[in-house]
Design a protein that fits this description.
Elements lengths: L1 H18 L3 E14 L2 E20 L4 E6 L2 E3 L2 E4 L5 E2 L14 E5 L8 E5 L4 E14 L12 E4 L1
Antiparallel strand pairs: 1-2, 2-3, 2-9, 4-8, 5-6, 5-10, 7-8
Length: 153
Amino acid sequence: MKTTFALFFSLGWSLLLLDAQANNLSITNLSLVNVTNGSADIQFDLSWDNSWRTSWSDNGDTVTVTNWDAAWVFAKFRQSGGLWKHVMLTESNHTATGGTVIDVAMDDGGTNLGAFVYRPVDGAGSVTCEQMRLHWNYAASGLSGTNDVDIAV
């Protein structure tokens, strides 16, 4: 009996590990666009392989359980080659592409240091998001413009 339990336990964990193989995350074509009045959009292309989202019914079909992977995306900036600092994202005005959702992670202090990007419906496979945009209020970071500003995602 113990051997059977150990076998099923090991097999179960192996199957879970096979499903969770999101990889090859890539961010390219980074630029600042729509730079006006203290804000700008950080534009980039985002892609990753083996993305997944799955839902199932549990507890006699009274509860729907959903699980998914996500890319955690954050940006940093520096001015005139200085120290890197976190970009504080706005709560809204982001542009999701490639059939994804952008969910800005907000803490109690309202610093909004990053966002989760994920697929909104069940599915699996590669995700390609061209010209994804995160909205940045650079004036809130003490900047009066984006000249001499380096940005990294």
